[in-house]
What we know:
single chain; about 230 residues; mainly alpha; disordered N terminus
Amino acid sequence: MSSGAPTADFGAGALSRAAALIHTLVTVEALLLLAAAPGLAGLLLVGPDPANLPLAAVCLLPLGPALSAALYALHHRSRDLTELHPARTYVRGWRLNALPALKLWTPLLAWLTVIAFTLTHFAATGLPGWWAVLLGVIGVGSLLWGAHALLLTSLFAFRTRDTARLAAYFLVRHARTTLAAASLLVLVAASTALLTEALPALLAAPLLLSLLHSGRPVIAETQEDFTA
């Protein structure tokens, strides 16, 4: 017999939403590490010698689609504890975005490898010291462009060249999002240098959620101005 009093639906409260978020983050993190595992395992076998930078870049190739699928799953996550399918959403994101992500991730890795190789062998180049600073700035700018490109290719079905152009446009257009991505980059670099190289990988899902949150203006403008 019903008393007629209104009751909250199960899974709609604050505690349920928090539990749903934690479950989604843990699941996405596990699937991200699984998808990137072949390359990450290869990195463990690659020595720290700068001569191994090209091989390290090859090992990092699976990471691009893994990150893209994670962004897709986090963007499409459910806030309702009774409607959670993060694993299914991650797999869908990987199937949709693996190839588009690789088309952007591969040249970015190649470009960053050239910069890193040049900087680690800078004394042999005979170039003036300001060139090293310039290359460092270009490398950081390329990483920030990559953050915008990863966000766009994970959530929208643009052609590769259009995604690349939009990422460059938003790099300046939405300076706050770019600065937020730079902050995450500093955090990753600091945690790697001061603690362990594994920490950024273990915290990839929360870091990507932060990137997604700071990238909301980019997502909104893209939906409003660049999609039908």
